[in-house]
Protein: Citrate synthase
Amino acid sequence: MTDVAAKPTDSLTVRDNRTGQEYDIAITDNTIAAKDLGQIRVGEDDPGLATYDPGFVNTASCRSAVTFIDGDKGILEYRGYPIEQLAEKSTFLEVAYLLIHGELPTKEQYENWVHEITYHTFVHENVKEFVQGFRYDAHPMGMLMASVGALSTFYPEAVNIADADNRHMQMVRMIAKMPTLGAWSFRHAQGKPFVYPDNDLSYTENFLSMLFKMSESKYVADPRIAKALDVLLILHADHEQNCSTNAVRSVGSSQVDPYSAVAAGVGALFGPLHGGANEAVLRMLKRIGSKENIPAFIEGVKNGDERLMGFGHRVYKNYDPRAKLIKKACDDVFEVTGVNPLLEIAQELEKIALEDEYFVKRRLYPNVDFYSGLIYEALQFPPEMFTVLFAIGRTPGWLAQWNELITDKEQKIARPKQIYTGDRELTFVPAEERWA
Ligand SMILES: CC(C)(COP(=O)(O)OP(=O)(O)OC[C@H]1O[C@@H](n2cnc3c(N)ncnc32)[C@H](O)[C@@H]1OP(=O)(O)O)[C@@H](O)C(=O)NCCC(=O)NCCS
Structure:
C-alpha cells in the first residue's frame, strides 16, 4: 500500500472495494507485473489477488527481442527486419541465423552456418528403423513429433543447456535434421524408400530431393519451386508467442533438453486451431466447387453456419502480411505446375469477402493459411504434410525463442495458477466399504 498522492506517473492506482484500500502498481513497458497484485489482500491468510486469463489473451509471459507484430497495421518483423524484405531478398538459412543470433551474418559467418547445417542433415541409422516401425497410415506429424523427441536419446549431452556451444550444436542439428525427419515421415506414409540427404544441394533443394527423388541419380528441383518453398519457410519461421512457441518455452522452462521442448512445439502445431487451418481451407474450396456457389456459401458464413476458413486472426486485424507474400509465391509455383483450379475460387471468395460489410466490420482479412494450401497441393503434398512443412519452417523460431528463454534471467519454470473449483476435505471411504 502506498500514498496515492505521491504516486509515480507510470503507475496504476487500484482501489480494492472490499477493503477500501488503494494500491499503486508500477506500469513498465505498458504492463503491470502480475505478482504486484499479490499485495492486494483482504486478510492475513488471503494468498493475494491474481489474474484469470485462459489462453493468455492479455498476459505477456516474457520479454522477447525476436519477433515484432503490429496486428492493426499488418506488420511482421524478425529481429526488426520487415518480413517483406526478408522474403524477397534473403534465404531461409540466413533468416534462421538472424532469428537465432539476433543479427545478420557476415559472409564468413553465413558460409560457416550453411556448412554446419548442411553437414548435420544425416540422422543415426536407428532413426530410420524406428520411423519404419510406424503403421503404414501413421500421420507424418505424429512421426515427426516422436522422432524429433527421440533425438534427445541420441544426443544426451544436449541436456547441458547452460553451455552456449552445446546449445548452438543442438540448434544446428535440429534445423538440419527436421527436413530429413519430415521427408522420411512422408516417404514412409507413401511406402517409398527413404532418400538420404544430398550435401551438394541447398536446404530446400535437398528437402525436395528427400521428398521426391526416385530412381534418378540426382534430383534436380525446378529453381522456381525451390525458391517458393524457401519463401514459405521464411514466412513461417517465427510468429512471437503463438501456441507452439509457448509450448516450447513452457516445456523448455523445466530445463529439459531442446529436442524434448521442440517435440512439444510440434505437438501443439499439430492441432487444427494452430497448424491445421490450411488443410481446412482446401477442403472448403473443394466443397464450394465453383464460383457460382460462392454467394450462397458467403450467406451461410454470415448466418453463422460455418466460418470462412483462412480468414480472421487473433492478432491481425488487417491483411496478414504473410498472406500477401504467399499470394505472390502462388504465381511462381503455378507457372511451373499449372494453375490450381481452386485459385480462381479463392480469389473470388477473397474479393467478395473484402467488400462485404460482415467481414469489413469485423476486420476479417485473409490469413497465412488462405493461399498456402493451394501451393502445397500444387507441389503434390497430401494435406497431412502441410503442417510438417510449417514445423520445418518454424524450427528456427522455436529455437531462437528457446535460446532466449534459457539466457533470460527473469524466466522461471512455467507454472500458472488455477482457480480451484473442486471439493475440499472429503473423507475417504475404502473401496470395500463403499462397494459393500
Ligand atoms: C483465427 C480465429 C480463430 C481468431 O479468432 P478470435 O480472435 O477468437 O475471433 P472471434 O472468434 O472472437 O471472432 C470475432 C468475430 O468475427 C467472426 N469471425 C471470425 N473469424 C471468422 C471467419 N473466419 N469467418 C466468419 N466469421 C468469423 C466471429 O464469428 C465473431 O463474430 P461476432 O462478433 O459476430 O460473434 C478466427 O478468425 C477463425 O476461426 N478463423 C478461421 C480459421 C483460421 O483461418 N485459422 C487460422 C488462423 S492463422
